Amino acid sequence: MSIKTAALAAAVSAVAVTAAQAEIKMAFIDPLSGPFGPSGEAAYTSYLLEAERINEAGGVNGEMIELTGYDNKVNPKESLVQLQKAIDSGARYIFQGNGSSVAAAIIDAVNKHNKRNPGDEVLFFNYAAVTPAFTNESCSFWHFRFDAHADMKMAAITDYIRSQDDIKKVYLIGQDYIFGQAVAAAAESQLTEKRPDIEIVGNELHPLGKVKDFTPYIQKIISSGADAVITGNWGADMQLLMKAAAESGSDIPYMTFYGGSLGAVSALGEGAMDLLYQVSEGITNLEASDEQYELIETYKERFPEYDYYYHRAHVAMRMFKEAAEKAGSVDPIAVAYALEGMVHQDAYGPVTMRAEDHQAQQNLYISTVSDDVKYGVDNIELGWKVVEGGEIDASVAEQPTTCEMERPEKP
Amino acid sequence: METIVFALLNGVIYGLLLFMLSSGLTLIFSMMGVLNFAHASFYMLGAYFAFTISGSTTFWIALFVAPVLVGLVGAVVERYGLRKVHANGHVAELLFTFGLAYLIEEIVKIVYGKTAVDYRIPDLLNFPAFTIYGASFPAYRIFMLFIAIGMLIGLWYLLKKTRAGLIIQAALTHPHMVGHLGHNVPLIFMTVFGIGCAMAGLAGVIAGNIFVTDPAMAVQMGPIVFVVVVVGGIGSLEGAFLASLLIGLIQNFAVGINASFAEIFWFTGLSPTSEIGDITISSLAPVMPFLLLVLMLIFRPRGLMGEQEL
Amino acid sequence: MSDATQNHADLAPSTGAKFRQRTLPILIFVAIILAIPMTDPSRTMLTLIHQMAINIVFALAYNMLLGKGGMLSFGHAVYFGLGGYFCMHVMNWIEEGSGIWGSYPTFFLPVMGFVAGGLAAAVIGSFSCRRAGTTFAMISLGVAELVFSGAFMFDSLFGGEQGINGDRMNGPEVFGLSMGPMQDIYWFMAFWTVVGIVAMYAFTRTPLGRLSEATRDNPQRVQFIGYNPTRVRWLVFTISGAFAGLAGGMSAVNYEIFTPEALSLIPSGFVLIMAYVGGITYFAGPIMGAILLTYMSSMMSDFTEAWLLYLGLMFVIIVMYAPRGIAGIVFGFWDGLRGAQSGEFLKRTLIQLAGCLLMLLGLIVLVEVSIRWSNGWGEVFEPYGMHFGHDSILTWIVIVVPIVAGAAILRYLGREKEEMPA
């Protein structure tokens, strides 16, 4: 065991101590260093904690989970090197989420690996790469997505906008690449369908990660007279956009996909209230069981640098456990068949793994920043609070699929 | 009309911020012939130092202390790093600063964490100065404007009106002669390097809170500063000043132009739905500086005001 | 001066020296390549070796510019990437079987990368090579930024963020390789690496290779003797871009995917580091750099989170104290051993090594303790069962004492050397 895994195991002692029994090896392939390191680590810590809790409760079919992190530096090629390392070390389950380019590369590589190495199959659990194609035209039996994809998130946002009569003009701004373009296209088509009276007053695409000062864009938005802005921006592009918006004194709501990502709220401070909205599968301030609250608090205590954000990481682990128990085996093909159509009762509502395309269906929540919350984020007083009419039922967010899946023989 | 007013205002402020960063780089470049790749890292250090200092005291103390600290760090880097590498030629010097940028980023991550820090605008300046066309204009941006102009005047006075400035200017072009006259040239170099870094640090202090103070801020700002220096012309502060404003204005005006290639080149019969015809000027705004850089180097390699070719 | 050699033939290296310096290293390299499959390497090992092979060719191509031509480029990944992208398209044409492509073997894809990389370099070089030095470096930076940004705008060529993927198991088989399993790819990599190394070495022996060194050292004189330095630079740039494209083609076959990141400043910076750390004044330098840095970037992140910091430190130290890179250290050591006072030299080197190791030890403990303190997960650095908390005095002793001791040893040696008569 390498120093790093050893060190992490020391933090999550149960994983290492009980590892003497039969093991289920899992690999987490995401950035763990460099500029995107924090977003990878925030998810990795969630997986570690959930693995520890499952092991403490007796493991999966009596076998213990051993999770190892592999640093892919958000580079597709490096990811394939790390994937090979993971598979060689015996991992049959792969977690990844940061970057659709990486996810596409991994899906492709896993498909090829499983075709070329029968009997040694691996499954890919995608927890954050949201390109709709992965569960549509390029769907794969070996890929499961636990996050709502871009069109589903957009459905939640447009459904919320439908109920807001005072929104008459919408502005779209996004990053100029496949994902940003897909978000803009989805917003346009869904808005015309749900609220034909809404006018789209701007559809702006800017190069990815190149803009330093968003003020001119904000002024363009303000002068367009928009009542709401929809954006799929992430990373620095999201933070800088919101900073410029807060600074201009604008009170237009920004409906974002990634407003909840690390550091965004603290960067804005109080300016974020009623300005920044996000869509997610759950937030810490939702009404929940004591068990869930305890999990949130344990997480914060263990990893003070991060917030409990990747709820879906916990869901993915739990669904794996249930599936493996249902199948009575940890063989990837058996687990994959058991996962198909499975309904998991979770803290924020049921999660269904749709069999046709391996896309998880779950309730989505629109929330905004508030100072009247149980749990703050980024170690400040502000936190996320669901807005009125912001509870979007899974059935509303559900999207049709064009997936035609090729399945291997059932074991 | 409102687009023009906003583009002018923002362009000038952004341009002046670029000038604060690039003036130091220009000085260092003309002195040592080396593009300091770590220059934007000193900008980042300025923001982080100001965050620490304003946390325990106030922003106003940080405004003065942080740049001085950054300048000292710069002087140490020159004295114990660059001067050693100097004997191995320009490529080695450049690569040294390239590696240094890496190192500073990693050390900042260890000391301050990997995510953005909560570095705020001082309350005293946190109000809208005026409102035009429905958008409020923050007072802090006006403050940035004054700081930048103040620095510009200070630098101009130092270089053109004081004896020290005369010696520095002489040392830039004729270091041996200045040495023979009895001045300590290495000391002058170290001072200039320190001052250059301090100016970058000052830019970090006033920009870190309006943008985001995180370990990636140096990488984001780095390339554009080079563009300014090269477009402006080597060793020319006036050129750097013009280039900064030019780039600030071009970027801000381009954002306001929605025309696509298909509309501009209509006479070629370019289809608006094709990949090329679909590109709009506003989506190109952030890459404009690099386009300018390449064109400038091809057609006028000495830059806007430079006296010599690179 | 009466001893001056009159006969040019006397200046030429002897047959023995030629064999030792030119043929032998290549024979050893081929022997290693043939020996590797016998050790039955794991798939991870093979993946790593393939990555190394790609980087060796890429770094050598880069060094053609930097080491031999004196042109510092910050955007050489552009040609690597364009070559690779073209190969991906060809791979997909092979799969569709459109036109003549249906009968083109995947094995020879790197040839297409070579052509595409060379063409791209020829076009861009026609304006960027007019000047050397900093102008060239800045143009390369600007071009790289433009190409990278442009890649996101033309999805049909670059496939947007997800890039373009393909399947290498199509087209006619050559040498009985189906190109599917990793072992087949190993022979593919071995073949093209040897071809790349031999061809690039041969290039340094051609008149153009010599002229490029002359242009690096003194362009004015080159002009005086009737050659056009701009043209020499452009030719070298084109050939270097072509070899970078060859490496791109190898990469396309290995990963079966190409994404726009491959064109960005990050791989461009990485190849610069590989070449420089390896040693740009030696032909073998970039090979060493490529092997070491590929290993570090893929495997070191398993051991420590701070691998980027170590990488940066190593780079800065090499720039400051060993400007001729790892190859310089290795060959310097070898020459010292063969020199007159080999015993004295060995002793000195060992003491030096001890000093370096002591400093390294202190530094590693410092870094590892710091990142754990910085993470705040309550982890403690525990190598070999020891316990280094950030608040224990022992930890700080282990950090400070070796660093001070190591620095003192190195300083003492440095002084001694200065005092020694030359």
From TrEMBL, chain A:
Signal peptide limits: 1-22
All copies of the Leucine-binding protein domain together span 23-371
BP-aspect Gene Ontology terms:
amino acid transport
Any Pfam family: Peripla_BP_6
Gene3D superfamilies in the record: 3.40.50.2300
Is this entry keyworded Signal?
yes
Q: Please name the InterPro entries in this protein's record.
A: BCAA_transport, Leu-bd, Leu_Ile_Val-bd, Peripla_BP_I
Q: Which UniProt keywords apply?
A: Amino-acid transport, Signal, Transport
Question: Could you confirm whether the keyword Transport appears in this record?
Answer: yes
Source domain of life is Bacteria
Q: Which CDD domains match?
A: PBP1_SBP-like
The record's similarity note reads: Belongs to the leucine-binding protein family.
Could you identify this protein by its name?
A: ABC transporter, periplasmic branched chain amino acid binding protein
| Organism this protein belongs to | Pseudooceanicola batsensis (strain ATCC BAA-863 / DSM 15984 / KCTC 12145 / HTCC2597)
Automatic annotation (TrEMBL), chain B:
- Give membrane topology per the record: Multi-pass membrane protein
Q: Where in the cell is it found?
A: Cell membrane
User: Which chain regions cross the lipid bilayer?
Assistant: 6-27, 59-82, 94-112, 132-159, 187-211, 217-234, 241-267, 279-299
- The keyword Cell membrane is annotated on this UniProt entry: yes
Q: Which GO terms describe its molecular function?
A: transmembrane transporter activity
Q: Which GO terms describe its cellular component?
A: plasma membrane
- Could you identify this protein by its name? Putative amino acid transmembrane transmembrane protein
Give the source species.
Pseudooceanicola batsensis (strain ATCC BAA-863 / DSM 15984 / KCTC 12145 / HTCC2597) (Oceanicola batsensis)
TrEMBL record, chain C:
> What Pfam families does the record tag this protein with?
BPD_transp_2
Annotated keywords = Cell membrane, Membrane, Transmembrane, Transmembrane helix
Gene Ontology cellular component list: plasma membrane
Q: Where in the cell is it found?
A: Cell membrane
Question: What transmembrane ranges does the database entry give?
Answer: 23-39, 45-65, 77-94, 106-124, 136-154, 185-203, 234-253, 273-295, 307-331, 351-371, 392-413
A GO term for molecular function: branched-chain amino acid transmembrane transporter activity
Superkingdom, according to UniProt?
Bacteria
Xref: InterPro entries: ABC_transp_permease, LivM-like
The answer to whether keyword Transmembrane applies is: yes
Q: How does it sit in the membrane?
A: Multi-pass membrane protein
> Which named protein is this?
Possible branched-chain amino acid ABC transporter, permease protein
